[in-house]
Design goal:
Blueprint (H helix, E strand, L loop, with lengths): L3 H5 L10 H19 L2 H23 L6 H10 L1 H10 L3 H11 L9
Helix pairs in contact: 3-5, 3-6, 4-5
């Protein structure tokens, strides 16, 4: 292999962990999956985030005027759904929660 392209075309892995390190990495991933990613508090936070983003997506798609002008201007070239998704992707958790309260449920409480 004499170029990056040659390396990318290889069917085999060129660099990898030693067996000992791979065992530790696998063990760590298992521990994190079982004790952190699947923790009830983390799963609850994920469900609330999904609710907020879905609610905002549906509401803003139905009312694009709720986005800033530069995003509204992009709708024609990028499409409504892509533009709304990009707008949401740029929001902080705090701002998304504030917008959810403003547009959907003023009594919603979400603790980060």
């Amino acid at each position: 292999a004499s170029s990056v392209l040659d390396i990318q075309k290889l069917d085999e892995t060129l660099v990898h962990y030693s067996d000992n390190i791979q065992t530790m990495v696998t063990s760590m991933k298992h521990f994190l999956r079982e004790n952190m990613y699947r923790h009830p508090d983390v799963e609850d936070m994920g469900k609330k985030a999904e609710m907020i983003l879905t609610g905002l997506f549906d509401t803003i798609t139905a009312n694009p005027k709720e986005m800033p002008g530069d995003f509204r201007d992009a709708i024609e070239s990028r499409g409504l759904q892509r533009t709304v998704a990009d707008y949401l992707a740029g929001m902080t958790d705090r701002f998304a929660t504030q917008e959810y309260r403003r547009l959907i449920d003023p009594d919603f409480e979400y603790y980060l």
